[in-house]
Amino acid sequence: MNSRPTLTQPAANGSADHTVVPRFPQQGYAREFVDKRREWVEERTGCQLDHVAACSLDTDLLRGNIENPIGTIQMPLGVVGPLKVNGQHADGEFYVPLATTEGALVRSYERGMLAITRAGGATTRVTISENKGSPIFKCDDVAAAHELAQFVEQNFKQLKAEAESTTSHGKLLRVHTRLIGRDVIVDFSYDTGDAHGMNMISKATDAACKWIGRQFPAQTCYILSGASSEKRPSGMLFAGGKGKHVTAGVRLSKRIIRQYLHSTPQAIGDMWRRTLVAQTVTGVLGYNGHVANGLTALFIATGQDVANVTNSAVAMNHIEVTDEGDLYASITLPSLTIATIGGGTALGTSAECLDMLGCRGTGHVLKFAEIVAATVLAGELSFGAALATDEFVHAHESLGRNRPDA
Amino acid sequence: MNSRPTLTQPAANGSADHTVVPRFPQQGYAREFVDKRREWVEERTGCQLDHVAACSLDTDLLRGNIENPIGTIQMPLGVVGPLKVNGQHADGEFYVPLATTEGALVRSYERGMLAITRAGGATTRVTISENKGSPIFKCDDVAAAHELAQFVEQNFKQLKAEAESTTSHGKLLRVHTRLIGRDVIVDFSYDTGDAHGMNMISKATDAACKWIGRQFPAQTCYILSGASSEKRPSGMLFAGGKGKHVTAGVRLSKRIIRQYLHSTPQAIGDMWRRTLVAQTVTGVLGYNGHVANGLTALFIATGQDVANVTNSAVAMNHIEVTDEGDLYASITLPSLTIATIGGGTALGTSAECLDMLGCRGTGHVLKFAEIVAATVLAGELSFGAALATDEFVHAHESLGRNRPDA
Amino acid sequence: MNSRPTLTQPAANGSADHTVVPRFPQQGYAREFVDKRREWVEERTGCQLDHVAACSLDTDLLRGNIENPIGTIQMPLGVVGPLKVNGQHADGEFYVPLATTEGALVRSYERGMLAITRAGGATTRVTISENKGSPIFKCDDVAAAHELAQFVEQNFKQLKAEAESTTSHGKLLRVHTRLIGRDVIVDFSYDTGDAHGMNMISKATDAACKWIGRQFPAQTCYILSGASSEKRPSGMLFAGGKGKHVTAGVRLSKRIIRQYLHSTPQAIGDMWRRTLVAQTVTGVLGYNGHVANGLTALFIATGQDVANVTNSAVAMNHIEVTDEGDLYASITLPSLTIATIGGGTALGTSAECLDMLGCRGTGHVLKFAEIVAATVLAGELSFGAALATDEFVHAHESLGRNRPDA
Amino acid sequence: MNSRPTLTQPAANGSADHTVVPRFPQQGYAREFVDKRREWVEERTGCQLDHVAACSLDTDLLRGNIENPIGTIQMPLGVVGPLKVNGQHADGEFYVPLATTEGALVRSYERGMLAITRAGGATTRVTISENKGSPIFKCDDVAAAHELAQFVEQNFKQLKAEAESTTSHGKLLRVHTRLIGRDVIVDFSYDTGDAHGMNMISKATDAACKWIGRQFPAQTCYILSGASSEKRPSGMLFAGGKGKHVTAGVRLSKRIIRQYLHSTPQAIGDMWRRTLVAQTVTGVLGYNGHVANGLTALFIATGQDVANVTNSAVAMNHIEVTDEGDLYASITLPSLTIATIGGGTALGTSAECLDMLGCRGTGHVLKFAEIVAATVLAGELSFGAALATDEFVHAHESLGRNRPDA
Q: Pick from A397, D43, D175, D208: most CB atoms within 10 A?
């Protein structure tokens, strides 16, 4: 007799069942506990998790990255390249790992990379590298809020000391206040080195805010107001300060465009103009072809915080016919939020993929930013050319899944 | 002697090296070719890809999902629940798979789920289920564009026939035109069933546009104008039509809030109001706590097109103190782009995770939409309560990675 | 001895003075009461209002347009033209009244109009003519809200009857609901004929909502949710439905551009592309050169509700070099909120200015919309050419006020 | 025989008529030329312009404010007050001039002002007072653009000297660059004193850019990129720098709200929350009730550049029930673009209306900013209370024009 409870069945006493996920010693990161927890889920929900079980990672290392672990998911990984980058931090040819399940995506980026590389490579520049936390203070009235704002602006030195007392790596670069009614939003801008930095930022900002709170006991402070635009799309992202501001550009001759992208500068230029108009009247933040695709595939492959695609994919693609009749194409990512240390970057496949780019660990985040921008540029070129030449539908038909209505 | 070329070294003849990723028979999906390709990458870039190699999937099944495959990436998978959902399609208690590397995220969603479940569950409703493609037609002048727009509006029946001739599942629901100068943007809105549908939509729309093109030979058409807001954040997403429009709500008593969220309705209500103001003056589209986190973790676990988080995470969170002093909390996702068939949904861990929710395959996408919304609501509640009670920094400190400045 | 109270002096008893504006019989629209009220202000504030007193309007006619009247303001009025319009409603050459105090503005629009007229005129089309009110209903929970939304969608006929019972002119075209948590936003879209229509819309919508309220007694309704975007800029305006959606376009040869705009298609095309990129990365809604200038000047001259410039100025300017090397320029105004009857349109100078365009009174609003669009297009061309040729600074210097740092 | 050409009649030779507005000596500002020009328009268009002719201004003074003058328009002017302001620049009770044709508007602002004044007055603070111009430089490629951006950042002293050589009043405060592909947007931020300053800014920025151009001969510069958001709504306005950033707040007791606004804190708080949600899901920039109404009426009355309402009306209204059960209401205007000298401020009725506020001429712009903010706050309170109590429709019915469907 099968006694496994169905999911919706109320318990005998009439109250709902509400069985929680079982707890194990030391939060259950040991392999045996991961296995037991997974088996409990299988039992509980009637599913089989064989592939989830095929986890090659040392489960003890998952502590700090996840709770209630039951294994790993797998996503297909492809490689594209070579991608020639002429940056200030990345200089050379790279083979880029992309994790995706969207057929044709890898091939499309590959073709854009070939065009760029044959054209001499993409030039890249990082102009901002910082991250921020933006608490909000509620004060008694507008006058009190104004006073607090002025206090914050005038006491940077002390705020810096308080904030940096909590971290050995982060540096508080500046504070900026905005008075909104009786609230004050304070942007704390940090240099976070090679780390994503939000945990560090929260901790450091919390210390600074607690110090402010001791001077203004009456106020309430919420440590994350959302005004930093972390993991949210906003009109303010183009102002910079949430991650890296990085630009990649390339000049493509008519010949290169014909040979690799099967199009012409004029056709791509016209496509660009019209689709930009279409996106503008749709209220899209920025303009791009499919930046989210490349970013997501790279973020998943390299252990980034993938939810940061939400802000990182706000981008500006600019493709134009030059006076000489060539094409100049660029992509600007004002809010690329990435890391080469911390978070998921050290786990199994993530570390391997960062290694593939020579970007693992300390001192590599700006190099990584430049490679990401050049990768995205490749995708924009290939996508744009496909649109301009009507190849788009065909490519997805021939490379996408061979199934009805996929 | 190591003859492996360095990445940046030009070839002997002074031109760059530009070695492309090797090609294999039938595009190289057989395991041996996947292995050879990966070994080539290891050789070429000097990295080791052992975890990438630990791929449990049948590589032949990767065809249609990726090109140039070299294995799989792995990301930690946790489980949270129970989550009680009172929907029109999802009805019962669920255990939800979340793939993430952000410490504390799973625990935070779990606590929100417990609060919801103990409160009787989240009520969910799906009000729109469709997807769209938005080509743009360039015409000779404003008058010609106006004529084309009128023609399109007047010939829905024929357009439907043309579009649906390419698909056995997709249904063209309606067309809508916008005249922008001498361009016409046409929204083709489809019922795509349980599939994501963009490939189907592109194919069907292409057929319809080719038919329009035969009546108006002078015009140029770009099949994807970007006006559909696919994988891009825009002000138009709240109008619906790009995916599911789904809402989840729950009423929480003071007692539940104290017990599970360690806070009060008033504290959470104040936090909501101030952070909403902060996000509004930042130009954020919609308002939410950290919707992107939950969506991304669920999308990765269940084989969704993760890049669609870019549009799906545009959301509206509403938490308020009721006249009776309780809390009413809701989340509305106007553009949730998901699938239970096609894309990456059938691959190994994805299929298993959909199974865990009873959402694998045909007929389950609306149920899945409701579970996603309820999951996201749990995350919003837990996050909001943490902010309101100053627990946020502490939770990330104790559950996040134990490393400097992670 | 001057006993006039100073503005900041508290009254003798220590409380502030708080003297209200004097009341007169029948709200004081008779000339003598207007004069007395003005004299009271002069006395009270120590200013002289001679020009305000030089009001040529019959003050009794101000009832319904203003309260506490003290006279009129005057603003300089200039005339520009001829402007050739080839529309479906406006067909001919027009002389356009512009009220402004910004030097060079009239001359700039004049030059754009000459270019358009010499090029054969602007082609104009109105594709939408409606206006909307968007109440919001608060319900008990998500399920109740969903029920109310469905009820509204299913009872259009009755809602139409209720709404139209309050008006002899307005027609309810359609209703559309959006479920946001436990709230339902309902868009009531009307044909308002030649009137602006917001008062009519509010009244009709109120009647319809009261009828809904009788079926759902528990809910609360706010008659203006702001979701109509009336007098507010929003990403939704490009979807249409708040006023007229009107487009104007013109093709300009190289010769015309050289002769009237002192530039070339290429120079203007490059200016367009770069400034569009600049505005996009600034988060501007739409793109335009200085549409607000022309609209404001026309709205003030013709007695429009000038605050509606806030939504009406959200626009899309598209200027491009054609394959033949000419320029094709267009402007699209998706939310032009105007009237030829009601509001301020019948007052003195307003009626005269509408007369100047042959647009006074019933049956002329679409003609007026086309003239407005063509006028704005003229301004965009002249402004764009000035930017492209570096004439901008010079023009403002020679035509602007001859004063330091004006 | 009447030989006056009709507007649409082509000339005899088959070409269109194209008669331009007549030119007069010295651009025709003398009264006789203004009259002749107006008579020509009357003749040409068949209208009568008697009220336009009733211009009390000295037409010679219109030079610099308008071209092709034919007289003035008149708009009704009302007065409201007293408005008590407790600012750092405005301190006392004021009577405010509002020019409008929207019935009920003046009465509504008056009631809000009474509530504020009886509650002790609105507290106001100006936190930013500057204005900016934002040219864009096109460079050869990303590397060249990066070089130019760095040059600009490093040569502020010289740029300041160049810019300020063109003006005796304007001060260049700072420059800020953004790299977007191969373009560089440069924000030049100025203190413009009491003037609007855009002409001064254009001239000064032009000088600075010409100096940059001499160092980088290959680039192209457009002096107005639109990135300053002048007269355009954008997500960046809340960052400040385009005009005054000013906040006004007031605390209202239950008693005051009942007596003057006929509502309760709870009702207004609920209205605020729901309409904010509604505006947020509409993609409105900021949130407000009807800020554009008050701003427009004040701008017209006081000779401001009314087109600047487009950016100035982007605002944040925050109304909340306090812990004590009162209401705290505030309005924040991040981009209030106003002047007390230059532009139209010195003309007839404008000067008189500024006098009414004690804000005419040098040294008064911050005082004026505070009065504007307090005025707008009054309008928000009255409008919000009307919505909350269902008075809105009734007020417009009883005070609006007594005509069908106005």
A: D208
